[in-house]
């Protein structure tokens, strides 16, 4: 077999391993998935009328359309926290040391985590999206091409954040530290344009909300799902994703390679 075939085979094996772990121990995934669902219901049914009134008198249906893309991005950020915890567990429990003694493609260990996490992210987004549709979210103005672009953007964001989460898990001494280190991936969507427009925020806070990866991603996803203009946010979102993917990959690879055997 060629080196590429061996790498693909080993990566596939590691992917099956991680998916089996997720299936056998679903509590972490369910706990991370519960947060965006609760946030969605909270902001729609508890704060919905107040928030929509503060956005120019829009009704609750309009606010649902506004808030759902941000909740979907929060779902991705929350799901990859589980990846950081899973990687940290592998590093601290000794299974990685055993893998290092075997004749396998070493990067496949990380690739299995990454691909498995991206698949879990997409499944989580679909589940949260189903809840959003059940409570009234509609995307009647989006074309099939825009839906496809929205799915691709979500996968790209999941890939970028997963590589960052893998790096966080590798540098964490235990699962608790990994969860804490990955907390910014959950907090950043809260201080973006997910729940209110940036123009409605205090002037001193607007740069914090604007110059971060989640805001252009949310604005792009919002435009694609609602069939509205996305402006320069699309290029910014893709640039952030590519930059974070490259950073996370080389950070994770360097950390994994210098870890003790």
Measured between the Cα atoms of the first and last residue, the distance is 26 Å
**Global shape:** elongated
Count the beta strands. Answer: 0
Helix residue percentage: over 70%
Please describe the biggest sheet, giving its number of strands, its sense, and whether it closes into a barrel: none
Low-confidence stretches: none
Determine the structural class based on helices, strands and strand pairing: mainly alpha
Rg value = 19 Å
DSSP helix count? 12
Q: H/E order of the elements?
A: HHHHHHHHHHHH
**Overall mean pLDDT score?**
86
What fraction of residues sit in β-strands? under 5%
Characterise the protein shown here.
- This protein has 261 residues and is mostly helical.
- It has twelve helices and no strands.
- α4 (60-93) runs antiparallel to α8 (175-181) and α6 (107-134) packs across α7.
Would you kindly provide a brief summary of this structure?
The protein has 261 residues and is mostly helical.
Topology:
Elements: H1 3-24, H2 27-46, H3 48-54, H4 60-93, H5 95-100, H6 107-134, H7 144-171, H8 175-181, H9 184-190, H10 206-210, H11 214-226, H12 233-258
Helix pairs in contact: 1-6, 2-3, 2-4, 2-6, 3-4, 4-6, 4-7, 4-8, 4-9, 4-11, 6-7, 7-8, 7-11, 7-12, 11-12
Task: Label this structure with key terms.
single chain, 261 residues, mainly alpha
